Amino acid sequence: MDQSLSIDNNVFWDNFLKIIEDQVNSQSFNTWFKPLRLLDLNQNSIIISVPKAYFSSWLEEHYMSLLKSSSASLLDRDVTFSFIPEDKSDSGVDINMSPGTDTNASVNIFSDTVKDTSPSFLKQLSINKRFTFDSFVVGQSNQFAYAASKAVAEAPGTTAFNPLVIYGGVGLGKTHLLQAIAIHCNNSVKKSMRENKLIYVSSEKFTMDFIMSIQNNLTHEYTKYYRNTDILIVDDIQFFNNKERTQEEFFHIFNALHLQGKQIALSMDKPPSQLKGLADRLINRFQWGLVTDIQPPDFETRIAIIKKKAEADGVYLENSIAEFIAENITSNIRELEGSLIRLLAYSSLHCRDISLQMASEVLMDTIQKRYPLITIEFIQNLVDDHFSLSKNSLIGNSRRKEVAIARHIAIYLCKQLTDSSLKTIGLHFGGRDHSTVIYSINIVENKLLKDISLAAHIKTLTEKAKNS
Ligand code: ADP
Ligand code: MG
Question: Quick one: which of 141, 338, 385, 440 is 20 to 30 A from 165 by CA?
Fold first, then answer.
């Protein structure tokens, strides 16, 4: 489940700034990021207040990938960024509140296809322009879902795949495929001039709009709007759980559309039969057409995805680096993409070419989650051996320089490679308190980027620990 949907705006903003602060130098941070204020964070977009109009273009040009990777690491979903100048007097530019400021990120499909007089709250359907069939890498894990989506996009309402239901875990490509259907249909409407009306909506927006329509006495318009479409795509149906009235409304819309042979496509995080808090009659209808899953991608598909993404960003990535990422990040594609973006951001911010060493440094914290069996004692022994120290010197009070450095390194590795708390780590190092542990970790982190020999020690020790 997408935990991040309920993330508190202030918490999000604080963490978001912290992530950025870690990745840019303090001058850039103070100049470009400190003065920003969060105006709104919603399902699809982040709206930020900037002190001057020129901030918008500067942030878009220089920091868009950093903004995106930072938000992606917190939100588990793609969002667009909009900037609103506080001081409009020097701008001379129209304020753009729509999520389209990030020009290549979203298009409004709805306005292209339908002339309509529905209430305005129903009209903001944003689609990520990147989510096409062409940019979707097909492998064993997703080929059936891909083929079915393509079939539906080419002949909506006429295949047996009605509804089309795609289910699978977070970050595996459900939204990508549903939006690819929307984009494909939208383009073919333009070509053939067929007046197919299309609605793509997340289940949250469907719910929010429904509530709003009740508040404003517009339920009739709401129902009419949804019943009037030729293609209805609803993403993340699991969020209908326990929303009984919304489910009921959706049930009637579903029936009306299905009866008329209109296409319905849905996504959910589990097979319909395992959805919790959804009415049986809805679950039953989800099984009328085709239910298909998406699995986590295999190694080859992961490599293909990384290479395709790098290519789309105009970056050449050596095979060994693509393989390194694909070997280590296995769970989902969003994480795979996030890792690549972090690596690209790091390389461009530090003006250094991407190397294997950089990849292992930058992705270390993501990768370490895979090695749950490494213990603090094991790391202590490893570090003792590596620096030829006598047993227990890390635990003792020696302030000899080489012992102190080895101790910092060992503590840092314990933080990186085990799940132990700072307190536990401190206890294993002769009862040091957690601020001493933080101090050691900071020392290593600060030196790591400048001190090649330290980086080499860390790399060797990390590899030894993981390969043990
Ligand atoms: P979900 O909706 O299942 O949580 P998304 O569709 O949002 O996942 O996918 C997460 C990210 O991974 C998106 O940026 C998407 O473009 C990318 N992605 C997922 N599957 C593929 C694929 N097969 N090929 C290329 N990119 C993919
Ligand atoms: Mg999704």
Answer: 338
